[in-house]
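Progress note, sequence design subtask.
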């Protein structure tokens, strides 16, 4: 007498299990892609915050005769009052998120913040976001100073290299 056991087909995963695994893989890929994009943009956001912090704190250094003699380096004073945000510091020097030098120099009654080695995409964002008032002028790569807001099309044209220089003069 032969005994036959019922044989069921058995596999590692069912079709719907494979579907769910593919769906999870696509979702993880999308999350990774979005995170990578936000990491690149975070440098620009941090730098924009640093510039805003320096603008506000430099204004605190103004006396009745201005910010000192024209050409006076204001970075040591900003470092002493903890007015540089999260900017990188080395002694009395500042560096931006892309290891470019940052200077803050008195022009008498005004001062100029200059950043070098700013990537093209960051240059466009910073040029359009930092100076939106008529008391600030922006100069990109030594070009003519523009008072107030710079439009994205103008910034795209002016931020022409992979290592740009931006100077903001604040009145």
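Output:
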């Amino acid at each position: 007498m032969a005994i036959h056991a019922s044989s069921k087909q058995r596999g590692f995963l069912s079709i719907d299990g494979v579907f769910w695994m593919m769906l999870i893989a696509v979702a993880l890929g999308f999350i990774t892609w979005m995170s990578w994009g936000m990491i690149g943009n975070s440098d620009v956001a941090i730098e924009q915050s640093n510039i805003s912090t320096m603008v506000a704190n430099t204004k605190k250094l103004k006396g009745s005769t201005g910010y000192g003699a024209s050409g006076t380096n204001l970075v040591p004073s900003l470092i002493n009052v903890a007015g540089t945000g999260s900017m990188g510091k080395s002694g009395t020097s500042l560096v931006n998120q892309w290891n470019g030098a940052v200077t803050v120099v008195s022009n008498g009654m005004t001062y100029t913040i200059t950043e070098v080695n700013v990537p093209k995409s960051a240059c466009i964002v910073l040029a359009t976001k930092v100076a939106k008032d008529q008391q600030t002028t922006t100069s990109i790569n030594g070009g003519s100073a523009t008072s107030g807001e710079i439009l994205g099309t103008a910034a795209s044209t002016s931020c022409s290299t992979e290592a740009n220089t931006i100077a903001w003069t604040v009145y």
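The helical segments are 15-59, 75-80, 120-129, 152-158. Work on this subtask will continue into the next period as scheduled.
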